[in-house]
């Protein structure tokens, strides 16, 4: 259990225990090879934990099959998307497109994630306003802490209309 999950209480984890049964591609607005996380482990009101095993031959794999360190940011963003998708499902709404606005202090202790490494991505919503802008504290462990960042995202109420107007 992560520190964020401890802060938000065991009851929320109990409510979220069925998240492992939901395929990730039903929670994120991606398909095929663009779905990079393998499984959602748990989801609460403010947090989500996901996992991925680094496999060779991935869309973004290095020549040796490892995943580049910068891919950690996309793993964090997809975990945030899965969090939003899980909440949309709970409210019987469709999964919506969201936008990665940027990050602060993406720090990675490695230059790549080796093949076969199981990574756990933890996200914790620290702020969200009524306009759809949110900030998440994110980390990747495998098993040691490997990467962390503060990630800023935006999810408009109606993504299709937003894109049309942009």
CATH architecture classification: Roll
Computed structural class: alpha+beta
**How helix-rich are the residues, as a percent range?**
10-25%
Q: Main sheet, how many strands, which sense, barrel?
A: 6 strands, antiparallel
Q: H/E series, N to C?
A: HHEEEHEEEEEH
Low-confidence stretches: 1-17
Task: Please write the CATH class name.
Answer: Alpha Beta
How many separate domains? 1
What spatial order of strands do you see in the largest sheet? 1-2-6-7-8-4
Q: Count of DSSP helices?
A: 4
- What's the gyration radius in Å? 15 Å
What separation lies between the terminal Cα atoms? 41 Å
The CATH topology annotation reads as Thiol Ester Dehydrase, Chain A
- Extended strand count: 8
Specify the CATH homologous superfamily: Hotdog Thioesterase
Describe it.
- The chain is built from 4 helices and 8 strands.
- It has 166 residues and is α+β, with helices and mostly antiparallel strands.
- It has a single domain (3-165), classed as Thiol Ester Dehydrase, Chain A.
- The strands form 2 sheets. The protein has a 6-stranded antiparallel β-sheet. It has a two-stranded antiparallel ribbon with strand order 3-5.
- Strand 7 and strand 8 (145-154) form a beta hairpin.
- The radius of gyration is 15 Å and the shape is globular.
- The N and C termini lie far apart (41 Å).
């Amino acid at each position: 259990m992560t520190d964020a999950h401890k802060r938000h209480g065991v009851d929320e984890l109990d409510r979220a225990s069925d998240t492992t049964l939901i395929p990730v591609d039903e929670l994120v607005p991606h398909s095929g090879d663009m779905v990079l996380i393998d499984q959602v482990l748990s989801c609460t009101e403010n947090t989500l934990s996901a996992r991925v095993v680094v496999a060779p031959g991935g869309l973004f794999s290095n020549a040796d099959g490892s995943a580049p360190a910068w891919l950690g940011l996309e793993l964090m963003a997809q975990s945030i998307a899965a969090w939003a998708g899980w909440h949309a499902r709970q409210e019987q709404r469709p999964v919506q497109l969201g936008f990665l606005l940027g990050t602060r202090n993406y720090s990675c202790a490695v230059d790549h994630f080796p093949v076969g490494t199981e990574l756990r991505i933890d996200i914790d919503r620290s702020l969200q306003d009524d306009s759809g802008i949110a900030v998440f504290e994110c980390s990747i462990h495998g098993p040691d802490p490997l990467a962390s960042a503060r990630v800023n995202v935006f999810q408009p109420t109606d993504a299709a209309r937003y894109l049309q107007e942009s």
